């Protein structure tokens, strides 16, 4: 056997040290991110388990604004007053979504836990074994009584599948996640910022209902909250969507 030269020995030893250092930094980053999410979770009365460390890290690394795919829509109308945008009327096409039904005591708990389950699906826990990519917004379907004065606990958190996966969506490993095809829909959308809870959602529903010329054209008990920033962010960018009756 040929003797290993001191130079090649140094290189092989040096590269293994570099790999160890990279792994250590990787582990430290994972711990830091997990700890951050666990703190945020506690604020929403949600436990973030250790097995979320890898999906959180993967999502954080891939969360470049340029790489997020926005759900495509056709703008039909913009309603403004004194330069302020009151709402937009949009058409969304037929599409497949990964959906999970949640029913926690508080809305914030439902969206945090639902989002975590969807994160696992996006981050390789699917039949393709691949990272699927982030699409925005992540949406939550909420239900109210006919009078629009109270919200039910049951919500559906949903992730729009990227264009390249629409024909053949990867199967989720989590049996709670269902792939659904939603029909083409016209929505009336109004933007708002901050946390989303029962109070802020009911306030936004009543506000948009008062602004619309013909609210009777929309469903009276089903609405969508569209989130453009993750549930951990404080000053979130959200929209409330009214759905036009089919």
CATH topology of the largest domain: Multidrug-efflux Transporter 1 Regulator Bmrr, Chain A
Structural class: alpha+beta
CATH level-1 class of the largest domain: Alpha Beta
Order of strands in the sheet with most strands: 2-3-9-11-10-6-7-4-8
The amount of beta strand, in percent, is 25-35%
Which of globular, elongated, flat, extended, rod-shaped describes the shape?
A: globular
Helix content: 25-40%
CATH homologous superfamily grouping of the largest domain: Regulatory factor, effector binding domain
Q: Tell me the Rg in angstroms.
A: 22 Å
Mean pLDDT: 85
Task: Report the order of strands and helices.
Answer: HHEEEEHEEEEEHEE
**CATH architecture group name of the largest domain:** Alpha-Beta Barrel
How many domains is the backbone divided into?
A: 2
How many individual helices?
4
Low-confidence stretches: none
Distance between the termini: 78 Å
Strand count, sense and closure of the main sheet?
9 strands, antiparallel
Task: Tell me what you see in this structure.
With 246 residues, this protein is of the alpha+beta class. The protein has two domains: 14-61; 67-244, Regulatory factor, effector binding domain (Multidrug-efflux Transporter 1 Regulator Bmrr, Chain A, Alpha-Beta Barrel). Helix content is 31%, strand content 30%. It is built from four helices and eleven strands; from the N terminus they run ααββββαβββββαββ. It has helices at 6-43, 53-61, 107-122, 198-211; strands spanning 69-70, 73-81, 84-92, 95-102, 135-136, 138-143, 155-160, 178-182, 185-193, 218-227, 237-244. The strands form two sheets. The chain has a nine-stranded antiparallel beta sheet, covered by helices on one side. Strand 2 (73-81) and strand 3 (84-92) form a beta hairpin. The longest helix is centred in the first third of the chain and has 38 residues, at 6-43. The protein starts with 5 loop residues before the first helix and ends with a strand. The relative contact order is 0.15. The model has no long low-confidence stretch (mean pLDDT 85).
């Amino acid at each position: 056997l040929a003797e290993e030269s001191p130079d090649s020995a140094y290189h092989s030893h040096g590269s293994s040290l570099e790999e160890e250092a990279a792994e250590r930094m990787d582990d430290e980053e994972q711990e830091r991110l997990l700890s951050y999410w666990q703190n945020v979770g506690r604020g929403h009365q949600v436990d973030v388990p250790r097995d979320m460390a890898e999906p959180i890290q993967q999502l954080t690394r891939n969360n470049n604004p340029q790489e997020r795919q926005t759900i495509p829509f056709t703008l039909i109308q913009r309603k403004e007053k004194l330069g302020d945008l009151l709402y937009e009327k949009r058409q969304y096409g037929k599409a497949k979504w990964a959906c999970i039904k949640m029913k926690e005591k508080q809305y914030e708990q439902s969206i945090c836990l639902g989002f975590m389950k969807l994160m696992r699906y996006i981050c390789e826990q699917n039949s393709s074994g691949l990272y699927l990519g982030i699409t925005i917004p992540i949406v939550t379907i909420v239900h109210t009584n006919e009078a629009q004065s109270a919200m039910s606990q049951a919500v559906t958190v949903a992730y729009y599948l990227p264009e390249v996966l629409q024909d053949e969506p990867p199967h989720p490993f989590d049996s709670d996640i269902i792939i659904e095809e939603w029909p083409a829909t016209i929505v009336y959308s109004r933007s708002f910022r901050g946390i989303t809870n029962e109070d802020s959602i009911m306030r936004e529903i009543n506000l948009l209902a008062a602004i619309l010329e013909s609210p009777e054209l929309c469903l009276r008990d089903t609405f969508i909250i569209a989130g453009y920033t993750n549930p951990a962010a404080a000053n979130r960018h959200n929209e409330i969507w009214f759905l036009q009756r089919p």
